[in-house]
Amino acid sequence: MSDIVNPGAARPTHPLALAPVVSPPSSVDGFVKQFLTNLNFDQGVSLSESDANDQYLALAGTVRDYLMARWLEDQARQNEQQSKTVCYLSAEYLLGRQLDNNLLAARLTDIATDALAQCGIDINDLRELEVEPGLGNGGLGRLAACFIDSLATMSVPNIGYGIRYEYGIFRQTFVDGEQVEQPDAWLRMGSPWDFPHPEAAQTISFGGRTETYDDNGTERTRWIPDWSVLAVPYNMMVPGYHNGRVNTLRLWRAVATNAFDLRIFNSGDYEESVRAQTFAENISKVLYPEDSTPQGKELRLQQQYFFVSASIRDFIDTVLPADYDLTKLPDRVIFQLNDTHPVIGVPELMRVLIDEKGMEWDDAWAITQQCFAYTCHTLLPEALEVWPVDLLGRLLPRHLEIIYRINEEFLEEVRERFGDDMLRIRNMSIIGEHPYRSVRMAYLATVAGAKVNGVAELHSQLLRDKVLHDFAEMYPDKFTNVTNGITPRRFIRLANPSLAELITEALGAGWTIDLERLRGLEALAEDPEFRERFGAVKAANKRRLNEVLFQRDGVHVDETHMLDVMVKRLHEYKRQMLKVLHIVTLYDGIASGRVAAADVTPRTFIFGAKAAPGYAMAKRIIHLINAVGSVVNNDPRVEGRLKVIFPPNYNVTLAEKVIPAADLSEQISLAGKEASGTGNMKFALNGALTIGTDDGANVEIRQLVGDDNFFLFGMTEPEVEVLWAQGYTPADFYQAHAGLRGALDLISSGAFSEGDRSVFEPVVSNLLYDDRFMVLADYASYIAAQERVDAAYADQDAWTKSAILNVARSGFFSSDRSMRDYIDRIWHTPPVL
Ligand code: 26V
C-alpha cells in the first residue's frame, strides 16, 4: 500500500519479501514457467488458445519481471548510498524496439529463444509484432535513448524524465509520391514495457494569478492557479548491458484531476465534465512533429511545464528522503536540459524553493545554478525557442515574475562587468523585444546553467563564437563541448550481429563496453582473409535488407550495387536536394546519350526522411525524390544501373536494417548548420564510408578515420560565411556548370512530373533565387567527390580496407565515451556499484 494513502501505517514485512524479490528466470525451465504464468494471468489465455500478440505480451512481461527484480534492488542500494542522480530532462526519447535490447542486456536471448521453442513458438515471429515507441523526432530524441543506455551500462544513477505521448511521431505514407501522415497509435496493442504508478502522481497547475502575503513580517508570494491536471508516471526499465543494473525512464501522462471532475459533475454538467477530462488529457496526447521551427503553440508550453514540473517535484518528493536539507540539493542531483524544451524547469525550481520551501531568493538561485546544465542541439537561429511574454504570463504567471527577476539581476551583473553598454544589454537580455516581447529560453538556460555544452567540437566552437558569443565572453568557464555518441549495443551488437560476431572473434568480447578496442581491427585491415570475411558480412547485410524491404514495401535491393544512403529528417539545411541533383545528373547523362549506361557505377540510392507536416518545401522535396525514383527506375535506357528507393516511415527499426547494409553514408549539410549528426557515427561504425562536408561531427570522424577513408567536399564554415557576406548568387553557379544546368533544367521541364512544369518549379526557383543553404555552391565539389567515390569503389578490396579502418577508428563515438565526458566535466556523478 502506498505511503501517500496511509502515511501512518507501519510498512508490511515478511521474511520471503527480502530481495531478490522474485527469483529471476535464469534457466529455460524457469523462463517457461514465468512465460506461461504471464500468458495465463496477465493475458488471460491458455497457451493453445493464445495468438501471437498474446505471446509477445507475455514474453515481454517475462523479461520485464526479470528486470523488475533487479530494478528494485538497485533502487534500494542507490537510496542507501545517497548517490547523486543524473535527471535527464528530455521532451523526446526515440527508443526503438525494446525486446531484443532487453534480452541482450539481461543475457536472456538464448534462454528465451529455447523456452519459447519448447512452447512451440518461434521467437522471430514475435519480434516483428513489437511497435516501436516513436516518442521523438530525430537526432535529439535518439541521443537521449543512447545516453540512458550508456548510463545504465556504466552503473550511474539516472532517471530519464519525459512525456508518455499517446501518439508518437506520425507514421509516414506516400500517396502518389507525396507524404501523408497517419497517427501513430503505438499503445493500441498493449504496452508491456511500462507500468503506471498512479500513487506517485503529481498535480500540475496552470493559469491564475499571484499575490503577496505577510509571513511573520516577511513578504512572500503565492501562486493561485486556476486549473490543474494530474501527471501520472509510467516507469520503463533501462537495463545496463551485462551488469545487472536497471535504471528508470519515467514518462508522464496527463489525466484529469478528480477535483476538476467532481466540481463540474456536482454542478450536474456531465458533458462539461467529460470535456474537461479531454482537455486535461490533451497535454500528453501527441508529440509535436516539428524538429526545428518552434511554432510557439500554447499546448507545447503546457507539455513542457507539465513534464518538467512533475519531474522536479518527483525527484524532491519521492527520491529524496522527506527531511532532506534542500540547501544540499546539488549533492544529490543534476538536471540536464536536453535543449531548451525543459528550461521552464529553472523558474519552477526557484518557485518550489522560494514559495513552497520558504527559501530566500539568493540561496535558491545559488542552488538552482548548480542543479542545471544545458545542452544546445542546434545552430539554426529559428530553432532557438522563444515564448511570447503574454502567453507565458497567462499560463505561468509566477514563473514569468521569477524570470523577470532573474533577468534584472543578470543584467545588473552585465552592467557591472561591461558598463552601460545598451546594445550589449539589449542583446543579452533574457527578454527579447522584437518582433514581440518574448522569453529567450536558450539565454535563460545559459544564465541558469552550471555548464553549457554543444554536441560536437565545431558546434561548441560556433556556440562560443556566434550564437552565445556575449555569454561566452562573460562566463568563459561555463562553456564546454561534449561530442555526441551512439550506443554500440543497439547499433552494432543488435543491428549488425554478423559484424559483431566477426569483431568478437577477432578481438574478444570486451569491445561492446570499451569501444576503443576496435582499434585492434586496424592491423586486420591488412589481412586479405579478414577483408574477405568483412566483405561477406556487408553482402549478407544487403541481402537481409533486400528481404526486409521486399516484405515491407515490395522493392528489391540488388546486392551487387553500391548502396548509397541518406537517412535523416528532411530539412533544407541537410540538403537532400544536393543528393537529388547528383542522381538527376547521372540520369541526364544516360538519358541524353552522353554517357553509356554500362559506364555508370551501379548504385542504389536509399532515402529515409520524414518532413514536418507544416514544412511545405520539405514535403515538395519528398515528392520530387519519389518522382525522380519512378522515372529513373523505369527508364530502360538506365539498364537498371541506377535505382532510387525511398521506403516510407523511416524509423529506428528500419535504421537498424539499412545502416549495416550501406556502403556510402551521405552527410552533406551546409557547413556550420548540422550541430553534430549521429547517423554519421552509426554508418562509420558499421563500415560505410562517408561522403561529407566539414560540418558537425563529420569533422571529428574525418580526423579519426583519416582523409584517405573519407570523401570530403564543399565549403568550410568560414568559406560559407564569406560567400554569404559577399552576396551568394546561385545563378553564377548555374551558368558555370553544364551538368548542374542540365539537372535543374530537366526538373523544370516537367520530366519528373508528367510534363507539368508547375509541380517542382518552387523547388528549382528556391535553389536559384532564395536558398539560404547554398546547394548550388557546393554542387561541383560534390559531383567531383562522387567521382572519387566511383573510382574508389571500383577497387573492392581497397574499399573494404577503408571500411574496416572506419570501424576500427570510430570507437570514440560510443555514447559511453560521451557519458564519461559529461560525468567528468559537468555532472560529477560516480557510479553506484
Ligand atoms: C526543436 C523543436 C522545436 C519546436 C518543436 C519541437 C522541436 C523538437 C525538437 C527540436 C530540436 C531540434 C534540434 C535537434 O534535433 N538537433 C539535433 O540534435 C542531434 C543530437 O545532438 C544532433 O546530432 C543534430 O545535428 C541536431 O540537428
Count of strand segments: 25
CATH topology of the largest domain: Rossmann fold
The CATH architecture of the largest domain would be 3-Layer(aba) Sandwich
Quote the distance from N terminus to C terminus.
Answer: 29 Å
In CATH, what is the class of the largest domain? Answer: Alpha Beta
Low-confidence stretches: 1-9, 18-22
Compute the number of helices.
Answer: 34
Cofactor: pyridoxal 5'-phosphate
Family: Belongs to the glycogen phosphorylase family.
Pfam family, one: Phosphorylase
Keywords: Carbohydrate metabolism, Glycosyltransferase, Pyridoxal phosphate, Transferase
Give the arrangement of secondary structure elements:
Elements: H1 28-41, H2 52-81, E1 85-89, E2 93-94, H3 99-105, H4 109-118, H5 123-127, E3 134-135, H6 139-153, E4 158-163, E5 171-175, E6 178-182, E7 194-196, E8 202-206, E9 209-215, E10 218-224, E11 227-239, E12 246-256, H7 258-266, H8 270-281, H9 298-319, H10 329-332, E13 333-338, H11 345-356, H12 361-371, E14 372-375, E15 386-388, H13 389-395, H14 397-418, H15 422-428, E16 431-432, E17 438-440, H16 441-448, E18 452-454, H17 457-467, H18 469-474, E19 479-481, H19 488-494, H20 497-507, H21 521-524, H22 528-553, E20 562-567, H23 576-591, E21 603-608, H24 616-634, E22 642-645, H25 652-658, E23 664-667, H26 679-685, E24 689-692, H27 698-705, E25 710-712, H28 717-726, H29 730-736, H30 738-748, H31 761-769, H32 779-794, H33 796-808, H34 815-827
Parallel strand pairs: 1-4, 1-13, 4-12, 13-14, 14-18, 18-19, 20-21, 20-23, 21-22, 23-24, 24-25
Antiparallel strand pairs: 2-3, 5-6, 7-11, 8-11, 9-10, 11-12, 15-17, 16-17
Helix pairs in contact: 1-2, 1-4, 6-34, 7-8, 9-11, 11-12, 11-14, 13-14, 22-33, 23-24, 23-30, 29-30
